[in-house]
Amino acid sequence: MVELIPIWLFAAVCICLMFGYPVAFSLGGTALIFAGVGSLVGTFDSVFLEALPNRLFGIIRNETLIAVPLFVLMGVLLEKSKLAEKLLESMAMLFGTLRGGLGISVILVGALLAASTGIVGATVVTMGMISLPTMLRRGYDPSLAAGTICATGTLGQIIPPSIALVLLGDVMSNAFQKAQLQMGIFSPKTVSVGDLFVGALIPGLILVVLYIVYVSLVAWLQPHKAPAVSKEELRQGSTESMAIMLIKGLVPPLALIIAVLGSILSGVATPTEASGVGALGATMLAYISGRLNLATLKEVVHSTTKVTSMVFLILIGASLFSLVFRGFGGEELIHEFFHGLPGGVVSAMIIVMLVMFLLGFILDFIEITFVVVPIVAPVLLAMGLDPVWLGIMMAINLQTSFLTPPFGFALFYLRGVAPKELKTSAIYKGVIPFIGIQIFVLILLTVWPALATWLPSVVYD
Fold first, then answer.
1. Among 64, 153, 82, which residue's Cα sits nearest to residue 300?
2. What is the C-alpha separation between 232 and 242, in angstroms, rounded?
3. What is the structure's pLDDT at 448?
4. Can you give the pLDDT at residue 59?
5. How far apart are CA 435 and CA 403, in angstroms?
6. In the chain, which residues have pLDDT < 50?
7. Measured between alpha carbons, how far is residue 362 from residues 159, 374, 375, 390, 406 in Å?
8. pLDDT value at position 210?
9. What's the pTM?
């Protein structure tokens, strides 16, 4: 029975979360209770807790995590300065006169917004408020409109520079070094956030292309679901020429994203340094657009501080949880379980992906990254899996989980900003084809891992 304590600990955390308690306190508080009881009955060595100060100091000194507040600041500034709204208007002018063009515009803008914010909730809510009323007003099928926005919003998981990839890259780096030490490799190779950024580019672009193909097919086969819009409607009485409106809407955000990703891909800047470029660039764009005032700045700083504080508090709680989990022999339990499976690494990978998919219904990507990945990744990596491929697979898997009814987070975010006339069943129905597309991409990555691993090997070798 003592060997099962790590499982009870994990189950207790899940129960606390289902009752609505804050994630960070559920992780840390539950771990402390188990550690206290374990110390009293002699099943836990309190020496493990002595490592906590060093872990917290390591979190504070971790330069990679500086990218989190800066990328969040970049995304919030783009949202508050209405640059995302202008970007959608510009894309609609380019494609809106085609059947399904407005849907294609939403996908492209959502992909760019995902690249700038990296936060699923922010992208879904922003796109829901900006584009959903427009799509419904232009005669789009409610299910198609809702599904397109939800699926596009989840691209923030996989399209760099993504907050999810920053956090996942940091955790995967530690797990990879740990796995190599377990294998007796004392000069371990490293994997960085930049590796994950570059590795995610091709799968992310494949998802965007497949989304566009799906919307185009629907518009071609069922024109009434995605009708074309006239140029007069798109311009809405504006006196500016279309060329000027396109330049104003497209060039600034595109230039910012190219500067951020280009500096990483060219090797000029690390992801942390590139996040500074993004934050400064977004501030300048907001200033140039005339929307950077004291009230906006206060709102942006407040939102950034709130998200950043949540991330770091969860990381502290997860560090305490992992120490107690390790103290109860959880790592050995997981290691023995995976190595005892009949299918070896294939069975282990399937089980991990399934568990993470189900956990995605009740936990956000931050909790899963900080709690689940450090437990399972070292074992999987020690079994020979590539860290970049594993990280991308996990990111897309969670992206699919956040989109799957009835518990997907993206569905709840859109429901919160959608008009009452849009039925929840229509949202659920609309996301099903996009879930199929994401599962198809997971299968592609499984069959051809080079889709994730080839570009990093070219860029960094």
1. 82
2. 11
3. 92
4. 77
5. 7
6. none
7. 23, 18, 18, 22, 11
8. 94
9. 0.82
